[in-house]
Amino acid sequence: MDLATIVGIILGIIAIGVGMVLKGVAISALANPAAFLIIILGTIASVVIAFPMAEIKRIPKLFGILFTEKKAASYTDLIKSFSDLAQLARKEGLLALETKINEVEDPFLKNGLSLAVDGQSADYIRDVLTEEIEAMEERHESGALIFSQAGTYAPTLGVLGAVIGLIAALGNMNDTNALGHAIAAAFIATLIGIFTGYVLWHPFSNKLKRKSKIESQQKYMMIEGILSILEGEAPRVIEQKLASYLPAGERRKFLEGSVNNNEQT
Questions:
Q1: I want to staple 169 with a disulfide (CB 3.0 to 4.6 A). Which of 29, 182, 188, 201 is the partner?
Q2: Which residue has the higher pLDDT, 99 or 7?
Q3: Of 55, 142, 149, 112, the residue nearest 228 (C-alpha)
Q4: Phi and psi at residue 72, to the nearest 5°
Q5: Euclidean distance between the first and final Cα of the chain, in Å?
Q6: Average pLDDT of 34-42?
């Protein structure tokens, strides 16, 4: 479960709720079915119009990505794995990696190692794996765009809801009390539109982009590791090369630990 997403939504709701109370607005003012219908259903309708059905069908899966934390090997674990594989390949040859491939859980890494063991050239392996990453990034970008567009439509629909509310309010000018209540209710649509657009949909889009960026970066590191093994580089050299993907502090700590382990062995 991705706690950051859940905590962010809760904090956003608290911010609006407490802010309304501090401003003297009753929370019950949000009980406006018409406003929710215009914003929520209107946003859904706009998104359905804007995107092909094949992409719309992926929305439930996108929500799953937003609210779950994908289990993946850490960068340091991957670097150590490549170091061990490189050591095995230098001692027994690339074919010796064939017994290790079945132990690899990541499909991308398994495919890359299989290509290396099969004797494919470095350029071919890089091209195949890079194209796979680019195709993945394209899919992820289209998913993020759905939420980004929803974040654009929702505030505008909020204004539309307010206009509809004001039209209804102005139709009853004789009762000033009812008029004031109707005008206040009209702007609830604007509030809901802005809240969903800028507290939910746009942040959801950004979260998907960040997760895609992290996944792509890890896969590019895998490519470098696979090609380094194919070229017969020493485990220590591979560690230093792949450590460039780590933050500076973590990189220094990892390399120092690696040196100490090598000295002990």
A1: 182
A2: 7
A3: 112
A4: -140, 150
A5: 40
A6: 91
Name 145's Cβ contacts closer than 8 Å, sequence gap at least 6. Answer: 51, 205
DSSP string, 51-106: S-HHHHTTHHHHHHHHHS------HHHHHHHHHHHHHHHHHH-GGGGHHHHTT---
Query: Tokens at residue 126, please?
Result: 């890089």
Residues 193, 154 contacting (CB under 8 angstroms): yes
Instruction: Determine the Cα–Cα distance for residues 48 and 33; give it in Å rounded to an integer.
Output: 22
A 10 A CB-CB count for 226 gives 25
> What letter would DSSP give residue 23?
T
Whether the CB-CB separation of 15 and 194 falls below 8 Å is answered with no
Residue 264: pLDDT above 60? Answer: no
Instruction: List, for residues 124-176, the tens digit of each pLDDT value.
Output: 999 999 999 999 999 999 999 999 999 999 999 999 988 888 887 777 677 66
Q: Dump pLDDT digits (tens) for 230-257.
A: 988 888 899 888 888 888 888 888 877 7
Rounded to an integer, what distance in angstroms lies between the CA atom of residue 85 and that of residue 93?
10
Extract the tokens encoding 105: 């859980």
Per-residue tokens: 4: 């950051």
